Request: fold
Amino acid sequence: MTGPGEPPPRGFSGGGDDEYRSTVFDESFVRAARLQEFSARERLADREHPVRPLPPRPLRGRPWRGLVLAVLIVFAFGAVVYAGIRTQQQQSVSRPGPRVMSSTVVPLSPGGEGRVPGGRPARLLERSPAAEFYTGAAGVTLPPVRSTAHFADSQVLAALAVAKEYVVESSLNPEVLSGETARPVRILIDPDQHAQFDRSIERPAADGHHAATGWLVRFAPGHTEFTGEGVRVRGTMEVRETEADALEIVTDHVFVYAVRPAGASDERADGARPDGEAASLFTVRRELRLRFDREDLRDQHLTVEHSEVRAGPMSCAAPAHDALRPLTAGQSAGADHPAGTDPYVRDGGDSPVCGTLDPSSLPRP
Reply:
């Protein structure tokens, strides 16, 4: 047995109170209780309710710290959400609309009564200024890659790669040149310009914005075909940063195609044809201004801002906005001249533009 207030000896069970021995009821625990036991006098008066609830106590000390921290977290979260929404609104307001491609297509007519030289394609190329040009995509060379103020060299290289692919697909792809498809070119263009591109391909117009030949090189089906000789190419590409969020690449290339009238019979060994026709050379110079913002670089797209095309030999009277129609071997421009323009007619369409093909650009006899 143990006296009152003395701890039981080791190994002695003190009864049911032992299981609560580890629980400490300090003053803060007692004060925090929500129920209070009635006193003996109060239990005599009310036997049904041995305890009564206590009113909530005002928070003091540390609980306020938790409340303040929670309020600060809510305010911080709200500030982040507001800033994100505000940024999206500013971007949506400041984002410019789709950029519109402008183009100029100038046919080059051989002057006088001179006829277009004809002969075997390889022989013609050897005697032309294109004798030293590369064949096909090998002629579309990239300049040295250097970073700019706001774009790394890897980003500049990515822009150049897409620009080269666009030049190749729009100027050298046989299916695009023959007018069979325009999809290889379309998939490289920023989707914001797809509506303008589709309108130009389906319903071309000589209005400076919807010329199919401003986007790509296309020969009129049933008018011209290729001889099978590779296209000769030479040109340059220049990169510059026009703004902090955009790169601009300017391409300038000359393409020389060996062509013949569509449906002509196979040529003989000397290059002549039973109908008197032979192959001839057709030259196209394309200058493109291409834009790349950061979204274009991410998605491998580009925006065509301007295209300038000069092509010959062609007739000034022949339409050049929908497809190119070369003058082939033995043909001449004659008294060819652009159609007249009435300056008194408002909104009567763009004035026809035509140039004269320098004889030095033709193969030597």
Q: What stands out?
A: Residues 267-276 have pLDDT under 50 and may be disordered. The chain is about 25% helix and 20% strand.
